[in-house]
Write a structure and sequence with these properties.
Length: about 240
């Protein structure tokens, strides 16, 4: 609407200039000179100005507080490492460790004796003491006294299980005075006198024993055999 009014005023001013009549500044001003209305009502603007600056009530503008920057002290620099490292000679010395003596490995009785305990034990006659037998065979299951021809006690017989399981039991007879092993007795589970003769041949001397038993003594070897009335071997004795 306002643009139409301006175009109309421009057209009127052009006609006046063409007719030689000077334009009235009051008439050409929409609001009149110095705000004095000088135009007819039809030419006056009936609309308020388009741009109006209005100040609304509110809090005052906040001025930002300047930030204080605290200077950071410089970080201390470490001295550069030398290219050639200095080594302490004491660090290169070997540390002496305590020497611990290894405990002697005790072989298993079966491995040391082999397949026949009597063959091993009879080699120890005159050498073994009671403590030696305990070290290899363990604690005896029982013991009994040994007698001479006059029925006097002259030693001690200790019973041990056979580690090789060939015999039911082993008995070791130790002399009362010297303490040395003097006789090895073995009790076979099944052995006849005929089988014993095939194992150990040679001449024998026979003697009667109690309860109908027979006592055979080889004359070509240090071996005595006690046989029951049925011909079964009760014990073998090496001396």
């Amino acid at each position: 609407m306002k643009w139409l009014q301006l175009m109309f005023l421009a057209a009127v001013a052009g006609q006046l200039a063409a007719s030689g009549v000077a334009a009235d500044p009051v008439a050409t001003s929409p609001g009149g000179a110095r705000g004095t209305p000088g135009l007819p009502p039809v030419l006056r603007s009936s609309e308020p100005p388009e741009s109006v600056q209005v100040t609304l009530p509110g809090p005052p503008p906040v001025t930002p507080t300047p930030r204080v920057i605290v200077a950071v002290p410089p970080v201390a620099r470490f001295a550069p490492l030398p290219r050639t490292l200095v080594q302490d000679a004491s660090l290169r010395q070997p540390i002496p460790l305590p020497v611990v003596a290894a405990a002697p490995v005790k072989p298993a009785p079966r491995l040391e004796m082999g397949n026949d305990a009597t063959a091993y034990c009879k080699k120890q006659i005159g050498r073994w003491k009671e403590g030696d037998a305990r070290k290899l065979l363990g604690e005896p299951s029982r013991n009994r006294p040994a007698y001479d021809e006059k029925k006097a006690v002259n030693g001690t017989i200790y019973a041990f299980p056979d580690p090789t399981n060939k015999y039911r039991e082993l008995e070791l007879d130790f002399d009362l005075d010297s303490g040395a092993l003097r006789t090895v007795f073995a009790y076979p589970p099944r052995l006849t006198w005929d089988e014993c003769r095939r194992l150990w041949n040679g001449p024998v001397a026979a003697a009667d024993a109690a309860q109908g038993r027979k006592f055979y003594s080889y004359t070509n070897r240090r071996l005595d055999v006690l046989v029951d009335p049925a011909g079964n071997v009760i014990s073998l004795g090496w001396y």
